[in-house]
Amino acid sequence: MPDTGPLPLERGAIRLTAEAGSRDDAIRQCGEALVAVGAVEASYVDTMIERERSISTYVGEGVAIPHGTVAGKDAVHHDAICVVRFPAGVDWDGDQVVLCVGIAAAGDGHVRLLSELAEILMDPGRAKALREATHPDEVVRLLQPSREEHSE
After folding, report:
1. Are 15 and 84 in contact, with CB atoms under 8 Å apart?
2. Beta strands 63-64; 80-92: pairing state
């Protein structure tokens, strides 16, 4: 597989001490992190919640990957991911989620992002380290391994 470059993660989209009262609250916080870095318009957040109501984005091991619907693509300015950690956990339709990796992508970019995230999360060591990360630098190191770093 060709090197596709690092995942589009900005430090401003990393929040490691969040608290959420519900699944939708957690998704809204992910969306707000994407809005904060200019990746999406606020309307995208509603499409993330809409997506969750049609199909769960829980992927196992305490991780969910919320993202918007096809209709939400018009609200995406540029591809981005956010990482929001909920140390106390969030009830996600009966599962406990401690880490949300939100995705925003124009076109078919979400396919690449989901694929790259799946590869990272399938590695139990990296997934555990990501769930337990307490500093943004740890998150960046785990999601943007040095072999994929590019100068900007």
Report:
1. yes
2. unpaired
The 8-class DSSP code of residue 40 comes to: B
The CA–CA distances, whole Å, from 39 to 42, 56, 82, 132, 150 equal 10, 23, 10, 26, 20
Q: Token digits for 64? A: 């969910």
Please tell me the predicted confidence (pLDDT) of residue 146.
Answer: 60
**Which tokens in the block code for residue 30?**
């992910």
Query: Is residue 42 predicted with pLDDT exceeding 80?
Result: yes
Global pTM? Answer: 0.89
**Two tokens, residue 128:** 């555990």
Catalytic residues: 67
Kindly list the structural domains of the chain, giving each domain's residue range(s) and its CATH number in brackets, ordered by start.
Answer: 9-142 (3.40.930.10)
- With helix as H, strand as E and coil as C, how does 75-118 read? HECCCEEEEEEEEEEEEECCEEEEEEEEEECCCCHHHHHHHHHH
Q: How far apart are CA 109 and CA 80, in angstroms?
A: 9
